[in-house]
Amino acid sequence: MAVAEVTDATFESDVLRSERPVIVDFWAPWCVPCRRISPILEEMSDSREDVRFVKLNVDDNPSTAMNYSISSIPTIARFEEGQVTQQAIGALPKNQLSAQLGL
What we know:
Thioredoxin_domain; 34% helix; protein-disulfide reductase activity; Thioredoxin; five-stranded mixed beta sheet; Thioredoxin-like_sf; alpha/beta; Glutaredoxin
């Protein structure tokens, strides 16, 4: 599955109300580490049908980023039942990212 884009307007319906866990990549186009981690998340999304992967551009969607106190990017957060349950900050290797997100 491809990593879908979410926005401030769709975050509640796409992430907070999801019946399955959602991994959210908080990123920005100018962020080099964000661009490095993107293919890793794409690869992970292809192998996990039980988890949804999305990304939110913090420059275009500042409200959601502020609501979750995102101060460094990339920040990758796991949401379950509308709550952040796990989080990873920085462009981590796939094995570390998987471990920190419970995947």
